[in-house]
Amino acid sequence: MDIPNIMPLQTDKGCLCRTCLISSIRQKIENMANQPIRQQLKLAKQYAHSNSFIEGLDYDMEEGFMVMTRWAHLKRGKCCGNNCRHCPYSAR
Predict the structure, then answer these.
(1) pTM above 0.85, yes or no
(2) Which of 14, 76, 79, 92 has minimal Cβ neighbours within 10 Å of its Cβ?
């Protein structure tokens, strides 16, 4: 499993290249921030054991460092306690 299939594929809605799909999926994940955390975790749980770690979806590169995204934290399923910038959990 590479790119998570978390929304319907709409072939009439523009480009379907990897970069554009990742961008669309990331936007969907960011829009989910207003939903209850349990609902977000339910979606992410099925991808928790994925071996893929996708730039732009699971992490961003900032000044040579990998910065975990909201999606990566949701896939983990709990707060790590490191006060991460993109932590979706209430412990922050």
Answers:
(1) no
(2) 14
